[in-house]
Amino acid sequence: MIGLVKPKTFSFDRLDLESGKTLEDIDIVYETYGSLNEKKDNAVLILHAFSGSAHAAGYYENDTKPGWWDNMIGPGKAFDSDKYFIICSNVLGGCSGSTGPASINKKTGKEYGLDFPVITIGDMAKAQKKLIDFLGIKKLLSAAGGSMGGMQVLEWMVSYPESLRSAIPIAASMRHSPQQIAFNEVARQAIIADANWKKGSYYGGEIPKTGLSLARMIGHITYMSDKSMEKKFARNLKNKADYSFEADSEFEVEGYLKYQGDSFVKRFDANSYLYISKAMDYFDVSGVNFMKQAPASGNDMRFLIIAFESDWLYPPYQSEEIARQLKLKGYDATYCEIKSTYGHDSFLLETDDETRLISSFLNRVYREGLQK
Amino acid sequence: MIGLVKPKTFSFDRLDLESGKTLEDIDIVYETYGSLNEKKDNAVLILHAFSGSAHAAGYYENDTKPGWWDNMIGPGKAFDSDKYFIICSNVLGGCSGSTGPASINKKTGKEYGLDFPVITIGDMAKAQKKLIDFLGIKKLLSAAGGSMGGMQVLEWMVSYPESLRSAIPIAASMRHSPQQIAFNEVARQAIIADANWKKGSYYGGEIPKTGLSLARMIGHITYMSDKSMEKKFARNLKNKADYSFEADSEFEVEGYLKYQGDSFVKRFDANSYLYISKAMDYFDVSGVNFMKQAPASGNDMRFLIIAFESDWLYPPYQSEEIARQLKLKGYDATYCEIKSTYGHDSFLLETDDETRLISSFLNRVYREGLQK
Fold this sequence. Notes:
CATH class of the largest domain in chain A: Alpha Beta
Oligomer: homodimer
Number of strands of chain A: 12
CATH superfamily of the largest domain in chain A: Alpha/Beta hydrolase fold, catalytic domain
Helix content of chain A: 25-40%
Order of helices and strands of chain A: EEEEEEEEHEHEHHHHHEHEHH
CATH architecture of the largest domain in chain A: 3-Layer(aba) Sandwich
Radius of gyration of chain A: 21 Å
């Protein structure tokens, strides 16, 4: 058990963005679990998914629910806090403490809104790199994450290979397919269509909760699978079908989506949804952008790529392609497809299989380091 | 070539609905192609999909585009108008001529809006049965349709088996899975969330076009496949990515969806979207509701069930289940899965394969009738 945790804030002056613009006065909120050893070679960076946060494990005071990957992070767990120093930060552009469109622009004293510059996955990684530098870590034992977290892992591999001993991209892609872009775009359009969105200047007033809730509902369908929905809801009714169109959420699945949408608007910022989803759509490290040829000798980088059978949003073929490219370029890469019916959500749910794979992978990488 | 066609209207006094309510003064708009023979045994009923209409083939005066299944209906085509008398009507609850929520309620002199009673696929078939009776047809040579059209075919099989010689449900399901319901529900919520929807009383004023357009965009993603989207759009840009969030439709796929949404609102009624999608979600002819055991002798019903490999909205397993149930109950049923990358849209696009299958199937059924 990690027990009680508190988020910390790392602040820095400026970040030159991929767009050519500059962002100033940046906060990155992060949490750490376990201790950094003297050689500073036991650090693992955890990257969170679209709607995640720095709170990956442990509890905040008075909270009943732990961080989003608590079953993977802690003493004796996959990311063993007895052995490793584990870091997780909220992404740039996010809304859980790090600087994003809902933050106060010091120049105006108001929230950024659409004045916030467009950011990329590359910019997120750049901010994370500054945090790692600040913590005095030259080389991470590993970087790991699922979904958009996996895309950040890929960005780290491409942009800071010298700072990585290993990497674990899970349920990720080197680039979004048009179908993935399409789902994101409909979600964005739902937010933009909400009259309360007001071109992003809704802070202090009514928030665009209907649009944001719709966006989340669409997302949730894509995070599950046909099979997992059948298992969870079938055609069960929440309220008796009364053949009246106005009935509220007749089918259980309708009530579930509505609940997910309603709770999401309480914890997530609509503009962050726009900016972060756009960053995912822009992301493309495929082709010539992907990793240099591994040096014939002295290459000790290790990669574990994980995908899930029923994940139709980030289908296994996208992860297989990552593994294929790595192998073609001479890297030690292992690809594992986990049998699961949970769809894209599997990376949060199939923790037994993930634990087995990741524990032994990290162990090996760590041991190899000790032998040097 | 069918050439120029004109829609006709069949009107009747009342329809007792599955909900227990009654609808009065009903118009059903329909088109016919070819001629009914003297024995009146060459009639084929075509059932349209969610957003279809009675205009299945031929051209309206000054139109540049033919009906929605023109490549399947006409002299020498799958539904050969030289041999068969082909009928297609707009569904009850629709917005292309048949009575629906946008029609004038004679009692009030105003559009029904939400006063329109909830309708079911069973009610649609009941209205079609009245049309068939009116045309003097006792037994249809066949009933055929894709998607919601296929669901109407299944309804005909269950409710009016004595009026069918054969049936061709394409890319259909005996009932919606929770995933199918979920996509429909998000689309409905998008319409309902539009401030212009005004609980369905928007006629004569601004229509809820943003919500309806969003609904259609969601639908369109589900009608295509990951592969077909990759082939059609890849990650091509419509406008140069300028790293500015406000840019309009950067990716081609975004522009395509927007275009599809924008054109849909010009031809479809938002309330019809709500009513018809609800009818699809209610539909369930599975289990004990599905077809009686075929009589051991004298059963001359024939079934052709077609599905498409890449259709993830109405996955092939749903069609296989139809065929399995029919065979279990002693019917002559053939199941064909067509290889296609077009997803659910395949039923409108894979007309070569469909033509081969349907032509020979209908030929056989027709010949068997002549031999009696």
